[in-house]
# Entry
Amino acid sequence: MADEKQQASGFGFQVSATDGRARRGRVDVEHGSFDTPAFMPVGTRGTVKGLTPRELHETGSQICLGNTYHLDLTPGAQIVEKMGGLHGFMAWDGPLLTDSGGFQVFSLPKLDINERGVTFEFEKGGEAVELTPERSIAIQESLGADIIMAFDQVVAHPAEYEQAEEAVYRSARWLERCRKAKSRDDQHLFGIIQGSTYPDLRKLSVQMTCAQELPGFAIGGLSVGEGHELMMQTIDTTEPMMPEDKPRYLMGVGYPEDIVEAVARGMDMFDCVIPTRFARSGVAFTRRGRIRVTNSRYRTDKFPLDTNCNCYACRNFTRAYVNHLINTKELLGSVLTTMHNITFYQDLMKVIRRSIEVGVFENFRRSFLAEYMRDDKKGKLDIDGDLMDADPDSLPWDTEHSVIPPTRIAENIGADEVSITPPEERIEARKELGDD
# Structure
């Protein structure tokens, strides 16, 4: 019956393959479909900073996220609605998700929280602004995203037990109000599970949240300073009680190692500002870990940001050039690094999905983490056995981006040679490159 309701409302979710707890699936909404596990770039104010919608498509992104709180402050939800909703306003024709504004509101000072909602000071001018579950839904309906999130109470880490317990009960009551306030059939409301890092509160929140008939559910209240180990322990507590036939969204996560480990624990959807925010300060993600391209060592470096990447930035520009751009505060530097980082994340999601399809996710998980993580960080991962037992080349990364037109590098060396660097060449390159 639940599947029939989802299909009738225009929402669909199918799991096509599993490998352990990891799931490969697909979500269908009004503005298209996206594959899971999925990473959603964050377009807080209706734009993923530094990228046009065309460039965002070229990274392999299928869905992105907008922020209810920021878009309502400026330009205002009514203006966005008049401009054709968020899809038309930002010229993005794929699926969109909007968060409820809860995380942003609860991070503000001078909050007044009561059963009705939250009152806070407007960051420009200081006048009082109230956000309630009903108001959050009304804003999100004006924005018109395909997936909308319930307004919940977020607590910081560490949180006192009584504070976290109160937030669990209040979030459940607010979710019911969100359901009653929702009027658009072409939007799909996800509930959010809270409970801080207390196992009994997480179980209680799962029971109360998932008892409501909704198309999907999210784990909220993580990635707020609790660290990788506590995050994974909380997922292990929560995920087994979540419905198997609904998508599971881990909000605000995160680093590549967090995503890989959360996929291993049954999570389907992720979002985070890390790849874009880090890019603006010159941090690039590679399969060998992160590098800070603004460092002096890269001033004369002729290699691309990532020798294994086939994005536009890596096919055309050197680390030396990006180093120069960012250090001289040229916008193109952050644009190129953002383009690469989002592409890296999407390539990671593609190979995760493929590894689940062919039943080698555990091997990929180990080989990726062995290559990506620094030695002093590997001990924090809850994985049995030696990471180096895996074969890193058993499942090559899919780095072909057919939507990107031929570039200077492709013309110079031949399009058929633009591919993943062979293992023996990667080894030689790494001896020269090092990593941060």
Remarks:
- The two ends are 52 Å apart (CA to CA).
- DSSP finds 19 helices and 16 strands in the chain.
